[in-house]
Amino acid sequence: MADKIKIIVLDILKPHKPDIIEFGLLIEKSRGVKCVNMSVYAVDEKTESVKLAIEGPDLDYKKIKKTIEDHGAVIHSIDKAVIGESRIINAPDLK
Amino acid sequence: MADKIKIIVLDILKPHKPDIIEFGLLIEKSRGVKCVNMSVYAVDEKTESVKLAIEGPDLDYKKIKKTIEDHGAVIHSIDKAVIGESRIINAPDLK
Amino acid sequence: MADKIKIIVLDILKPHKPDIIEFGLLIEKSRGVKCVNMSVYAVDEKTESVKLAIEGPDLDYKKIKKTIEDHGAVIHSIDKAVIGESRIINAPDLK
Amino acid sequence: MADKIKIIVLDILKPHKPDIIEFGLLIEKSRGVKCVNMSVYAVDEKTESVKLAIEGPDLDYKKIKKTIEDHGAVIHSIDKAVIGESRIINAPDLK
Amino acid sequence: MADKIKIIVLDILKPHKPDIIEFGLLIEKSRGVKCVNMSVYAVDEKTESVKLAIEGPDLDYKKIKKTIEDHGAVIHSIDKAVIGESRIINAPDLK
Amino acid sequence: MADKIKIIVLDILKPHKPDIIEFGLLIEKSRGVKCVNMSVYAVDEKTESVKLAIEGPDLDYKKIKKTIEDHGAVIHSIDKAVIGESRIINAPDLK
Amino acid sequence: MADKIKIIVLDILKPHKPDIIEFGLLIEKSRGVKCVNMSVYAVDEKTESVKLAIEGPDLDYKKIKKTIEDHGAVIHSIDKAVIGESRIINAPDLK
Hints:
Chain A is of the alpha+beta class.
């Protein structure tokens, strides 16, 4: 189970077509992907900015990247990643 | 179970009639829809803007879109989508 | 269980009498109503504005509306509705 | 179980004596009251403003009101009420 | 179980000595006290302002008050109280 | 179990060396300490300000204080303490 | 189990290559690391600032530090640490 990519959050810029539903279906077909969450946060005339969260037991980032780029979108940044056990680490929040 | 549409959140503009209750009942009749949540966030003289969340094991977006448009409403945008397993992905929120 | 109205949230304007407790008791008597939540958010000399949430396995909106209007109140707007399964749909909230 | 008052939240203005502890004990003695929560939110020279939440399987508002007024306090407003099943109704909060 | 004081939150002003740990130990010794939470929210040259929450199945406020005053502190206000069943009452929060 | 110190939150000023990891390990060795949480909230050229939470079934504050001071740090204030049962007391938060 | 490092949160500055996914995989290979969370919070032309949370039953900070520095990144600060039992300590938050 060690050194596996479990969650990736990407910031992408995509054309309106395919819409986020079709886009999500294409990404969900990648090996190892179990769940895709998409959320549009800015809309322009020809493009939309989308936060894309992907979860699975062993994500293949190269293939996910290729799928995104093959459909006319670009990855602005890799925002977040969870590696190893699929867990959000709680940290002390002392005030 | 793979590549199925589980949750869609739409931003729609609709006339006051049918009201959101009747509107929700019409959408809930679409194949695969199990639950409809509607929330009005802006009201105009003749129209209202509504966030519409739809959940089901295998949503048919084309039919949902047709139902919405057949009752005089337009889809402003597809805001959010969950594809594959029906799960909200937690992402690290480190400060 | 399909196409049933499970939760309605209304924004109403009512005279001070009957008070929200008596008002809630009247609504709770409608067929299919199991629970009524009322919250006053603005008070005027002769009226008060109230958020009214109603839950039940099969709400009859027409009768609820009649009860409200029979006691001197008016419905400003239908704010929210849950149709089908009684569930609040979680949507991705990616930042 | 139908048409019963389960939770009432009142906004009251009271003299400093009896203090909120003694005041709460007096209200808790009313028939049907199981739990009393009190929270002071403003203090003046001779009075204090208090949010008073009362829960029980079958509250008797008239007696509660009498107890409050018999001890020198006035009810500013009935802020909230839960009637029927004792449950806080969740409503869609779509953004 | 009826008419028992379960939770009290006090706002107190105390000298720096005894510190909040020693102070809490003294209060915890009062009959009926099971748990003491203390939180300093303002510090002055000679004094500190402290929120003091006390929980137990049957608190004796008079003795708690005496303990506080016997160690050089004064009670600014009784902020909150829970009487009867030890429960925080949820109230409808409709928006 | 009565009159035991269960949680202490301290505000300390420490030199950069030893770092918070080594510092936490030193404190964790004190009798009765089960868990140490440290969070840096301000950094200066030679010092850093740290919130330090310590939990255990029976904390010995004097020894903890000595350990802190033996490693070049000073205690700004004792911010919070839990005495008796190890529980965060919920208080009514009525609005 | 005593005196073990369970959670570390670091603030690091890294070049864009390797990306946070590859970087996380490298750190996850260190002895004792079970889970890595990474979150980018600022992006510059040549570098990015990242919050890096690492969890494990017995973290070896020296090796983690070496791995980070061997890949061209620098540790700005050690922000948070959990030592002993792996638990976030709740502290009274009285208002």
